[in-house]
Amino acid sequence: HNPTTLWNQMRNMHFYTSTFALISTFQSASSLNVIQNFFKGGAKPAINLASSPISKVDVWKTELLSAVSNTENGKSATLEQQAQVLKIVGDIEEACPPPETLLSDPDVACKLDGCWYLQYTSPSELGSEDQFPDAWKPATKDDTPENKITTKRVGLSGGVSANGINVDTSNRVTAQIIDVKNSQVANEVGLDFGKVRVAGSFRMSDVSPRRVVVAFNELKITLDQLGGLELNLGFIFAALALARGTSDSGWLETTYLDDDVRIGRGNKGTLFVLTKDPDAVQP
Prior knowledge:
Layout: H1 3-14, H2 20-25, H3 29-39, H4 56-68, H5 79-95, H6 106-109, E1 114-123, E2 159-162, E3 165-168, E4 174-179, E5 184-191, E6 194-204, E7 211-223, E8 229-232, H7 235-244, E9 250-257, E10 261-266, E11 270-275
Antiparallel strand pairs: 1-4, 1-11, 2-3, 4-5, 5-6, 6-7, 7-8, 7-9, 9-10, 10-11
Helix pairs in contact: 3-5, 4-5
């Protein structure tokens, strides 16, 4: 097999996620009515918590993992399902946000450590601010290096993006490995032909105490069909950093965290749901 041909095939097959179908559905008033109904409440099943030792957050977590199941990491989720997930996530974020010492206190930050499995991605917003005034909004601050990081929405579902390189993660094992002590993060996606690994360093944001700014510098593709041949393409990130005038690739804010589930919001308007157990949801 020719590595160049394989590389071109990979780019064509895996390194983009189409959002035209999702965008086109926004034009339908009936679709907007469906998702707005979820944010008005009442769509979730009634649960009697008075006689149960389970907390509201525990119940919402169970509902969340059920809601994201069978959506191919969010790629096949309907607008109604996306709205349901966003409603549950909003309730969890409001009820139990991480402490502001999440990244500054080692005893708290250690909860981020280890291998997390990506179970769901979708846009953080499904309409305009007028339609969803209570939708999550990132904190901003003038005169900070983070302003060079693009916040252009990509409308990504069932995929991840690193410096404009989009990888389809639907029906694929996608792991995020965090090393808090050494301020390192890596994303690994298993694909039909091998594995893609994107990694780099991170630092605490100047804008939000729960946000990390990531600088990717490693892009490695392993080709199983060629005996595990590794293609090191980190120079792509170096070139992008030179063109933009910053090595900062993006940011990720942790909006909920416990021993089992992590919820995050990205700079390109994407919601992420991750679990420590790779089999916590049905793919």
